Write the structure tokens for this entry.
Amino acid sequence: MIVSDTAVKNRISVVVLAIIILIIGTYSYVKLPRESSPDITIPHVFVSTDYRGVSAADIETSITIKIEKKLKGLDRVKKIKSVSSEGRSQIDIEFIPGTDIDEVLTKVKDKVDEAQQDLPTDLENDPSVYEVNFSEIPIVVYSLSGNCGPRCLKKIADDLKDDIEAIPGVLEVVVTGGRDREIRVEVDADKLAYYRIPITALQQVVASENQNTSGGAITLGQGRYQLRVPGEFETPRRFSA
């Protein structure tokens, strides 16, 4: 009752105070920064290494442990977790909240580079170091299905990719799950051995021949035309031509 009686007696002051609160609240709401997809920083850096055909135990001893030894010298590390599975090593470095993720990402890459000299020399790819960036996570996922076959669906997806990327505000569109056309070359090992041709030489020849080259330019009247010599293989018949 005391509060209500005081408010009634000082009704003009209460109205003025309410208007001030309303104005400040409206101003704060309008000026408050807000995003539909805010950039959230997670203090985690991941190191992934692929080594196909190797057991989990060998992955742990030959890759995971050697990289972890180098990472233990980093500052502001809260926890290091790792998973060694068949053909892959995955290491999760958790840092203390508030750590500059760009700075520690560079330091982790430097440590991984130091560990590379102790890793197996027959790795297909170097270890990859990356962070979780929510801005790169797709916000819309579309699936295509139909009876026209994988080749037809892949073509439709590629056409849709170009159309969607042309929409303002779309950064990138990635097509996954489709099969790219390829030509498989089966080599007769006996003939290569008979002619003493190493398999690497054959690979280099196929790669150098399977490409388009420039044929220079010609001038006709007032026009100048660039010439292109097509050399990419489109059918298996071209390999035997």
Notes: The radius of gyration is 31 Å. The chain is about 40% helix and 20% strand. The chain has a mean pLDDT of 83. Residues 13 and 171 are 53 Å apart (CA to CA).
